[in-house]
Design goal:
The structure holds 3 protein chains of 3 kinds. By secondary structure, chain A is mostly helical. Chain A is 75% helix and 0% strand. The chains are: A mainly alpha, B mainly beta, C mainly alpha.
Chain lengths: 110, 103, 286
């Protein structure tokens, strides 16, 4: 916000309120479509890697879907947050697949 | 098509024990399919067991009865070789009837 | 520095490769399916000393007396009866080209359930009964059935029924690929997956007889001998494919395609370690 005078601040506050009502609050908080696209691409890439390890998780897919839905509604804050959640989940599934590479033997009946 | 009704009725002399299994979806009307659309109600409304010209068992069923229902009961009377007639009618007007011999 | 590390790891990888190429280099790692099966069956019989070996095929119903009584009552009028009849009808009905399922199987398809899955040495892969049925359809110009729906369940129900009581007799031919498939199946069985971090063994080895919500978990031993099953929870019949994919999604893992290599190998392993236990399918479960 670049307002110098009191009037300017008030003006932008009023504008902000209008935008909130219009459901475009995200524009204020900073996440843009580009942010979403980057976060989504990162999450998708991680989930793809999980697929190559044959170990995708259903919550990852759900978070990706939620991100897409939020982005379509113009809510890029939520969209970015969901994308990041999806990426974290996908990374956890990758970690799981890798650590299970040998860890599975601990359960085996001998 | 094969009958939707399976019956086994055995007489012990004084009483007859009847077991029946009926193939029916028994949709309550409150369940959604994979697409999220409601599956319309489709259930058996009346089930009758008839022996020697009279009803020995009559059930008024509603949507709360589970899929492929199973019934077990016994009644006084009934001899080996007697006929037992079973029929049902559902809310769409469909019906089925079968006759079993008491063993 | 970095390239030095790379070099070192490359050398390691090479060493590992050449090491791995030697057949069964390390004695402890030598796959021994017969010993596995013995240990597997011993584990369960020791865990449940009151349950007879053959009774494990009745899953949760073998686990306590109360459930066993329920099962005996249920078996008098089993809910899979309709599916069984449908399967019998379907099995007998010829394809459009005049041939039938019987032409695709040894002994006309009767009493052979206990031999599946088999290892096809030509293909170098495991062939399950469900897969063989669909291949039979396709070879005769018919569209394949869904692996998780009623038609496949009905067909396998009928084929299991004609084989009831026959002991599972899964063979691992003297072919390194067969042994590899077996090992892959074993690894899949014990590998944790999904967000809940469960392996098949978490439930069916570590906790059979315990409850998961209202259900009693079935022991892994003999679990496939009862397939396909009428599951009251599903309100219908389920194939082995349906069981595997549903297990995966229940632990929040994305299921693989039915009859993917992993599932075929898993079925191979799990059937092999239940060798000697009778076919009890089709089964009914709560």
């Amino acid at each position: 916000m670049s307002g110098t005078g009191r009037a300017n601040v008030l003006k932008s506050l009023a504008l902000a309120t209008t935008m909130l009502i219009a459901g475009a609050a995200s524009a204020l908080a900073g996440a843009s479509e580009a942010d979403f696209k980057a976060a989504y691409a990162a999450a998708e890439a991680a989930n793809k890697q999980a697929a190559s390890l044959r170990n995708q998780w259903t919550p990852t897919a759900a978070a990706l879907a939620a991100a897409k839905k939020a982005a379509e509604a113009g809510d890029f804050d939520t969209a970015v947050a969901s994308s990041q959640e999806a990426e974290a989940l996908a990374k956890a599934s990758i970690y799981q697949a890798r650590s299970e590479k040998d860890a599975w033997k601990a359960l085996e009946i001998h | 098509m094969a009958s939707t009704i399976r019956v086994r009725a055995t007489s012990s002399g004084e009483t007859t024990e009847v077991q029946a299994l009926i193939q029916h979806p028994m949709d309550s009307g409150y369940v959604k399919d994979a697409k999220g659309d409601l599956i319309p109600p489709h259930f058996i409304q009346q089930l009758t067991f008839e022996h020697d010209g009279k009803n020995v068992f009559l059930a008024d069923w509603g949507p709360a009865v589970s899929k492929d229902p199973y019934v077990k009961f016994s009644f006084k009377g009934g001899k080996k070789g007697d006929d037992l007639k079973i029929s049902w009618v559902d809310n769409k007007g469909a019906s089925d009837t079968t006759t079993a011999k008491i063993q | 520095m970095r390239s030095a590390i790379h070099f070192a790891s490359a050398a390691l990888a090479l060493a590992a490769l050449s090491f791995g190429a030697m057949p069964f280099a390390v004695a402890a790692d030598t796959p021994d399916p017969a010993a596995d099966a013995k240990a597997f069956q011993k584990f369960f019989t020791e865990k449940f000393p009151k349950v007879k070996l053959d009774d494990f095929v009745n899953g949760p119903y073998s686990m306590n007396e109360d459930m066993h009584r329920q099962w005996e009552e249920k078996e008098q009028f089993p809910p899979y009866d309709f599916s069984l009849d449908l399967g019998k009808e379907m099995f007998a009905k010829p394809f459009k080209n005049g041939k039938s399922y019987a032409d695709c199987f040894p002994n006309q398809g009767i009493g052979i359930r206990q031999n599946y899955p088999t290892f096809d040495e030509k293909e170098g892969k495991v062939v399950t009964l469900e897969l063989a049925l669909n291949r039979c359809r396709e070879a005769n110009g018919e569209a394949p059935f869904s692996y998780v729906k009623d038609e496949m369940a009905a067909l396998t129900a009928y084929m299991a029924f004609t084989s009831r009581g026959k002991p599972f007799d899964i063979k691992i031919p003297n072919d390194p690929r067969a042994l590899e498939a077996y090992e892959n199946g074993k690894r899949y069985f014990y590998t944790r997956r999904g967000q809940l971090n469960f392996s098949c063994a978490s439930c069916h080895v570590q906790n059979p007889g315990e409850r998961i919500r209202a259900e009693v978990l079935a022991p892994a031993l003999g679990i496939l001998n009862a397939m396909p099953i009428y599951r009251s929870e599903w309100g219908g019949m389920g194939t082995i494919s349906r069981r595997f994919t549903t297990c995966n999604s229940q632990i929040r893992g994305v299921p693989l395609e039915p009859q993917s290599d992993e599932y075929r190998d898993l079925e191979y392993y799990l059937s092999y370690v239940s060798n000697g236990l009778p076919v009890s399918g089709p089964g009914a479960r709560p």
